[in-house]
TrEMBL record:
Coiled coil: none annotated. Keywords: Signal. It comes from Pseudoxanthomonas winnipegensis. PANTHER family: BLR0621 PROTEIN. It holds the Pfam family YkuD. InterPro entries: LD_TPept_cat_dom (IPR005490). Residues 66-229 form the L,D-TPase catalytic domain. Residues 1-23 form the signal peptide. This is L,D-TPase catalytic domain-containing protein. The keyword Secreted does not apply.
Amino acid sequence: MSLRLPHFLLCTLLVLTTQPALAKGTTAPPAMSQAQQLVVVTTGGWDDTQGRLQTFERDGTGWKPAAPAFAVAIGKQGSAWGEGLFPAQHEGPRKREGDGRSPAGIYGIGEAFGYAPSVDTRLAYQQMQASSWCVDVPDSPLYNRIVDERQVGAQAVKGASEHMRLDLHNDGDPRYARGFVIEHNAKATPGLGSCIFAHLWRKPGEATAGCTAMAPASMEALQAWLDPARRPLFVLLPRPEYQRLQRAWSLPPLPADAQP
């Protein structure tokens, strides 16, 4: 006995069986549906240290560029998949502590910090002190946290190398004079990377240990624009990965001047 399917059901089955399967890790991250602001950094490839930063804001018709793109520098070894708000990826390098790569993916944006008592920003702001550290020791219970040595004790920051007042510890170094936290490895899994920030560069194009660096005027405008009520996200991807994931991750098209 043969079974005859209704025409509408047969058409539905044909559509389902002829659609290509989505690759693993190409589901849109839930945080993208809530975000109203995006900070997007793209580079030419995994090993590139130079990129472009483009801001976007979402209105009723979709994502629109919020300001002209500008130059940034990232890790001295390029970028690698980090731990963030996106599905696991199986192709490409993986971020590790001390590898000199900036974490690729999608991340929340945390508090702002700097040397001054206050700055123009709606982000939560913390003035760094001579006793402020970011703990980059993987086996420390304070791993991947900014702490004050006066509160946690000298033993708690033993072995850490991330002074947050670089100007006092490194001959006036301006890099942390203004910045904000990129929430990479928020669960502080040992060895997957720590203390990832957006901050100032000492000179144009100087690569970092894994952060994203930019000119002071660019950081000033960025901090003033960011609004935690609009659930901003930070995206960093090599251009080929951005193109591969753009539709699946609901990422906006890049203007010509934002392309590395």
